[in-house]
Amino acid sequence: MKTALIRITRLFAGLLCYAVGIVMTINAALGLAPWDVFHQGLSKTLGITMGQASIGVGFILIIVDSLLGERLGWGTVGNMFFIGYFMDILMLNYLIPVFEGWIPRLFMLILGMFVIGIASIFYIGAGLGSGPRDGLMVALTKKTGKSVRFIRNAIEISVLTAGYLLGGFIGFGTLITALAIGYIVQFTFKLFHFDVAEIQHRFIDDDVNLLRKLLYKNKEHAEVEE
């Protein structure tokens, strides 16, 4: 129980920090990351918030990931819902500042990516599954036999194009984010000595199977007593 509470606390801390990092990159107003361009495009087209767009896209991706054979964790579901939820709280209540000059905005953009790196350590380190977008990348890599780099670039170019056509904001910051986010996250992992390969994830089907075993044992025990 103690281990489970630590995992859940770590997961939610990571999801909240991830939302903070995303909103910081949005409020930098230098251009959105590819997925956020897509979310903003959907937001404008459908008349919903960016957080709601993020949740909706995440929900669809979870279904696609499942159909492609990817195992889902509670962290996958939490990522789908709570990042978008936290984003709306932060943005609708103006909890993250907006700066005028391009230098502080650039600083906010870079700091936001660093926060995303720290958030990734928390939520991935909880060992409760990856996010639905990462799951799509892994699933398509397995199915197509293409490199992770090719699949990731293909996905991000696709959502960036779709988001732009829907009215999402592309700017200089979009290029910076696309080129720098991977390096900054990797630097953050090295800085905190975090190794993704060492994480043993627990998936939803693991808990379902455990519950079945417990119910079966309780049933057998009850039959023996009778």
From TrEMBL:
Q: What is this protein called?
A: Uncharacterized membrane protein YczE
For this protein, the record's Pfam families field holds:
DUF6198
TM annotation in the entry: 12-33, 45-64, 76-96, 102-124, 159-185
Q: Which residues form a coiled coil?
A: none
Q: Does the keyword Nucleus apply?
A: no
Keyword Chloroplast listed? The answer is: no
Q: Which InterPro entries match?
A: YczE/YyaS-like
Could you list this entry's UniProt keywords, alphabetically sorted: Membrane, Transmembrane, Transmembrane helix
Q: What organism is recorded for this protein?
A: Geosporobacter subterraneus DSM 17957
Q: Which domain of life is it from?
A: Bacteria
